[in-house]
Amino acid sequence: MLRDMGGSLVLEPKGEEMGEPIGDLHASASDLRQGRLGGELVARTIDEVPILCALAARAHGTTLIEDAAELRVKESDRIAMMARVLRAFGVTCEERPDGLAVEGQPEGKLKAADIESGGDHRIAMTSCVLGLLADGPTRVRDADNIATSFPRFVGTMRALGARIEVESGGGTP
């Protein structure tokens, strides 16, 4: 999907571990263009749709995500949650029964936001990434469960230059 949107990616396969392919992925800044995610591709990338929404928010044109009704019954209703998150950052989007239409804003800063992740780790991580593009501090609430899929997320983001504070006792980045 990212390649279809004009993203610069190079994959170096490194073999398999536990029956899964592994490798190194090299990405660099790219001017993204609108894309369409649907059919078999959306089924294979269903858990990556939130971060694809963040990429769509920075692409030229309107990106369509279709055939993704399954997102309504994940850890949260990820279609509704991503529509709220994108709008909180000032990104125009249309929530649809089986997906979203996201109007990209390739230039300028997004609006700083206060996001309630609904306890969904993928919504929380995507909100943190979008916060890097905001015109001020962004707060992501109920983000303790990021460790569910990416225990070193905060450390990795810091290593990439993000300034993230974690509230004591709450774990909210």
What does this structure look like?
By secondary structure, this protein is an alpha/beta fold. The protein has one domain (36-159): Alpha-beta prism (UDP-n-acetylglucosamine1-carboxyvinyl-transferase, Chain). It has five helices and eight strands. The protein has helices spanning 39-44, 49-57, 78-88, 121-131, 153-159, and strands at 8-17, 20-28, 36-37, 62-65, 93-96, 99-103, 114-116, 139-141. It has a four-stranded mixed beta sheet. Strand 5 (93-96) and strand 6 (99-103) form a beta hairpin. Helix 2 packs parallel to helix 3 and helix 2 runs parallel beside helix 4. It starts with 7 loop residues before the first strand and ends in a 14-residue tail after the last helix. The relative contact order is 0.12. Keywords: Transferase. This is Enolpyruvate transferase domain-containing protein. It comes from Polyangium mundeleinium.
User: What is the CATH H-level superfamily?
Assistant: Enolpyruvate transferase domain
How many structural domains are formed by the residues? 1
User: Over the alpha carbons, how many angstroms does the gyration radius reach?
Assistant: 16 Å
Distance between the termini: 28 Å
Reported for the largest beta sheet, the result is: 4 strands, mixed
Structural class: alpha/beta
Total DSSP E strands: 8
Proportion of beta-strand residues: 15-25%
CATH topology tier name: UDP-n-acetylglucosamine1-carboxyvinyl-transferase, Chain
Residue-averaged pLDDT, rounded? Answer: 91
Low-confidence stretches: none
SSE string: EEEHHEHEEEHEH
- The shape is globular
Give the helix level as a range of percent.
25-40%
Instruction: Please tell me the CATH architecture by its name.
Output: Alpha-beta prism
Number of helical runs? 5
Domain Enolpyruvate transferase: 11-157
Protein name: Enolpyruvate transferase domain-containing protein
Keywords: Transferase
Organism: Polyangium mundeleinium
